[in-house]
Amino acid sequence: MNSEPGLPGRSVVLGVSGGVAAYKSAELARLLVKEGARVRVVMTEAATHFIGAATFQAITGEPVWTDPWDVRMPNGMAHIDLTRDAQLLLIAPATADCIARLAHGRADDLLGMLCLARDATCALMVAPAMNRQMWEHPATRRNVATLAGDGVAIVGPAAGEQACGEVGQGRLVEPAQLLSAVLTHFTPKTMAGKRVLITAGPTAEPIDPVRVISNLSSGRMGYALADEAAKAGACVTLVSGPTALDTPYGVERVDVGSAQAMHEAVLRRLHECDVFISVAAVADYRPAVTSGQKIKKSADTLNIELVRNPDILADVAARADAPFCVGFAAESRDLDAYAQGKRAAKKLPLVVGNLVADGLGGADTQVVLYDAQGRHPLARAPKPAVARSILDHISKLMAD
Fold this sequence. Notes:
alpha/beta; 5-stranded parallel β-sheet; Rossmann fold; 8-stranded mixed β-sheet
């Protein structure tokens, strides 16, 4: 299997069945192509009532397949040949009818034939989408359980407002999340079996009901690490300060506000983890007193007494049962001295250091890894790529 990130060289067959959520499949196809995959679309007859084949052809640059009798395939056996060089058959949306047909091995349309005739090297992934009552019906639950028992990956559904106006579980998972599921499928499981606890984002220390002490951390680095660790097979819990980021696919997220709340959330979950990665930009100090009412503007100056917050990483690393601990050091100067000092003072196997000018709050970053063997600079790159390199380094240190 190709171990490169993304989907270059991968071949994906995208099955589209007849639900209103079919319009999202066009965006999914675009994202898959953007990641480098070859995408061929197979539509049921019902799907063509919701979205046109020309849309998918324009996005993928490939002919769209709907008819089992289509003679464009040289040997006239599209139901066999379409998946012979594919590594994944993804059906999104998969309606209740489509799921029922798959569960019972129906082969009366091209998509059903493909599912039965696919080679063992072509995995099947299904993303359900239907009315909430159809999803909750015992027949659908039995059919989904049958597919799962056959080794089919089930992604979703999500909960929320539906096209029919009802609210509940049954929405198609958003295209970006489906892409994450596909990327997860193809990522080598270098962290399989590992339980990883990660903190991310800023903390917000309340001054009064409307004001806080915080910082410019976006949370992107911590979220990228959580995402990449989950793709690599780890069971990931993300304790997050306030951010505007979506929860990575397959990650359990715990939202907190203050440093004290993050400290408590981490210690409650510490017994469950093998690796603790302290990425969050935790406020070192908080107001000694929080006003219950908004502080009104009056004098030219305002004095606020600050007290020190608990040091989450130090408290974790000092435990007799401490997991493998990774610290982050964001500095404005003298990075080597401060990062190595932090590693020594807290007895950490690894510290990831960066200058704030090189990535705080941005999409790209440049970091240096500090361990017992010295410093290991990484090239500037998007944060997901940097996260993969950090996790690779962690895996090597743990193996040693």
